[in-house]
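Subgroup meeting minutes
Present: P.N., E.W., G.H.
Scribe: E.W.

1. P.N. recapped why we're keeping a running log of single-chain structure predictions: easier to compare across weeks, and new members can see raw inputs and outputs side by side.
2. G.H. added today's entry (552 aa).
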Amino acid sequence: MDFLAIFSFVGFTSLVAIIAWYATRTTDEQSSDGYFLGGRSLTAGVIAGSLLLTNLSTEQIVGLNGSAYKDGLSVMAWETLAAIAMVVTAVLLLPRYLKGGLTTVPQFLATRFDVSTKTITSGLFLTGYVVVLLPVILYSGSVAISGMFDVPGMFNISDDAALVACIWGIGIIGSIYAVFGGLKAVAVSDSINAIGLIIGGILIPVFGLMAIGDGSILTGLDNLMNTNPERFDSTGETGQEVPFSTIFTGMMLVQLFYWGTNQQIIQRALGAKSLAEGQKGLLLAAFLKILGPLILVLPGMIAYHYFDGGLASSDLAYPELVRAVLPKAMVGFFAAVLFGAILSSFNSVLNSSVTLFGIDIYKQHINKDATEGTVVKYGKIFGVCLALAAMFIAPLIANAGSLFNYLQEINGIYSIPILTIIVVGYLTKRVPAIAAKIGILSGSILYIISQFFMKPNFVESALAEANAAGMTDAAQLAKVEADAYPHYLHVMAILFVSNILIMLLIGKFMPRKEPFELQYTQQVNIEPYKYVKQVGLVVVAIVVGIYIYFAK
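Output recorded in log:
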């Protein structure tokens, strides 16, 4: 790695840190609103930028492009359908969240059901964050940074030692942002990094198209589309990561959970200075999310053409393309942008974990009389412990680049049960707390039984029959495996509907004594953005139009 690359990396990273410090120096970090929600002062642009950067991290950039390398355009569903979910959140969920003055999503569950329902939900969130998200973000990010800077060669150390050094470097810097800066520091740094990531992310497909088009972007695009036209199909097939049918079942549920109820994401909108600003931020992010495939799908498809489908692993598609087409002078800037994406995801999850612990566990169960300053103090201590745990766990993870689809499956353990009780909580008035507890526990347990006990047995039996019949073709065996058991997104949809019916049935025979009414706390202005529905319809129409245009 030459001096220019290192200088540009350190320079851009330092600039982001200085601006974040300057923007947050007057925020009251000793109050819950100041620390956890940036003083409820976030504007539309900051919310949109923070949403996008929180969403983007190395395992997604590498993993989703790897999926595109393997399956083609159909994996864009992870990006384009997110725009529709953000519209639903802006129109239906955010008005209710801000009316109730929420700091965390589980807070609503305490009011609607009871405190133990809130605690169970917060515990599920925290378990998912510390066991799955934080270590994977650290590991995959460290692999990318170590490779781009050739850390083993630079310091003459082993690959494992370089990996551990990068994990702790990212972990410590991310912790400083999240634990000691609060949400506003995270959000401001996200917004700056969003600009860099969009610029750097678009440069990769631009240089990639020029590489396969003899210096011309349009020629490169023409070559890409004409060489393998079947890969430009928006409708996935059975055996691929996103079969078309899943778009109408579990895919939309996953998107609604992620963008509408997941604490690490929705916390940005909860910090809005008004409902109108929050809605505009979500809608702006939705428009930008439609462009997501340019960064997260197109490079993988270019890599398939560039390397003629000959890479040893689909997860190598993005890093190998970057190494092949990016001018050497820009490597440092791009590494800094990627570093920003890694930090953003890490510190956003960590900040949300601190919020959940401080508000929903420490204040609720450990020290009910704690002042706001005490809650923030012990939240920070918990954040440091959580970060240390993630840094110790991260080196134990292997093959992080291939975890994108697997992570979506794992997250179903808590995502669908939580979405279920929130939907029922807002749409009904008399479903009792016991229904929520049964719904969230049964949803998690049934999903675990389905995906980690029943599915392996069905797949193993189907593959044994195929092998006995003399089937050896890899593509055929993959189809046999896919057909052996319902796609996990379909399983999510089945359990979602089942849990809702169970909760409604309990509500019919064991209703609440008093119907639930959502009270307005008057913490922020809840006058909606006057064009929210019109702009939302435009976003939905664009997404549907893209699918129709590319459908084969």
